[in-house]
Amino acid sequence: MPHRFDIPAATISGLYRVIDRIGNLGPGAGFLRAPWSDEESLAMQHIESAALAAGLTSRRDPVGNLIIETPGMFAEWVETGSHMDTVPGGGNFDGTAGVVAGLAAITAIFQRPLPLQRGLRLRIWRGEESSTFGTVSAGSRAALGLLDPAVLTRTYQNRTLAEAITSQGGNPGAIRAGLPLISLNELDGIVAHIELHIEQGSILEQGNFDLGIVTGIRGSSRRWVHLEGAFDHSGATPMGTTWRRDANLAMAYMQVRLDQLLSEAITAGADLVQTVGVVNASRDLNDSIAKIYNNAVSKVSGYAYFSHEVRGCNSLEVHNFSQDACDVIRQTAAEFGITVEIDEFSVVEGIPALDHGLQQLLNDCCHAHDASTTSLASGAWHDVAALHRFQRNNGSSIAVGMLFVPCRSGISHSPDEYTSPEQLALGASVLASALASLACHLADSSLHHTVHTL
Known about the structure:
Cofactor: Zn(2+)
Helix content: 25-40%
Largest sheet: 8 strands, mixed
Binding site for Zn(2+) 2: 94, 129, 413
CATH topology of the largest domain: Aminopeptidase
CATH class of the largest domain: Alpha Beta
Distance between the termini: 24 Å
GO molecular function: hydrolase activity, acting on carbon-nitrogen (but not peptide) bonds, in linear amidines; metal ion binding
Strand content: 15-25%
Structural class: alpha/beta
Binding site for Zn(2+) 1: 83, 94, 197
Number of helices: 15
Number of strands: 16
């Protein structure tokens, strides 16, 4: 039976009291703690101070990821972690909730006289968000030697990523070396890593579930679709494809047909989502493609573009649907006499299944806390995915799991992002129960297929 913890909501509120001020842009404007910024560093320092005050230890890796640990020498470790950077104008719970809950959970375990046979570790990753330097999970991927050194030249607010890392005391040369910043001995000793995160969707709230157990993580396939038609007078040019090569009209038909295509795929059993997020409105593209400004109220549109994204846990399913979608786009373009160019700019493979033993453990811990739960895939990417992808020298991967807490109305990456202290306290309590079970070897039977292959 898992240990039960009852972490008070006041503990969560107390840790948030300082964080609520760091990177706060003002009423209704949200937060900005950019990767490797003073604000991200201050938030991490606050967590470090609280951890040290609780009797835990701290250290940093060469790029500035913060590691909090229970004192003592252990051959094996049980981990949790998340990030504290935000998107511009985002909320204060994406990532940060997992850090706060993780510290509260480890502190609660440490304060009990439990027979820990494994150490407990909280990793606070730098730079998970991609909205600044254009790369996701930069800190965790750098720590694992998985980050492409080319991203060091990308800029945000007139500063390269390399300069940002240096400004916060990190060493970008460690990324250029392309080697893991975590020692091989330390990597081999990680028994499991569980990340708590807000759902960033509304399945939990709408289903009235207290918590969610994540089954897999959706990857993505992204492309720009450029459409070239012909500019003509809107009044003098007759209707119909004989006379008009209307790029905007063709684009509208494409979007409707793509939606129909996905509906058919879902009916056939596919687990996919699809989004057209940008239509003729990318600042970067508009700066380089001046002809977009030749569109006018009194003209038949001669040029248009849109973004197209497909997400799913199964990479083959995503690939196959993306190919079908591109076929629909090309067929529709031909029907309207439009020239089409499709530029795929990003492919991130999804994770079909997180560790089944950890899913069962989290389910047992939820029941021990009388918390209602459901299983669901994560639509967003997370640092835990980088850990899942990493292959150790013996060919094994790190067992990873995720626990979701609800967020109000499913809103995230917004000033309206919110999860209550009570919801986070329950999540932290269940997380503590799972971590304690692993640290005391109580969960080894459910993790037999994972733990004994390390």
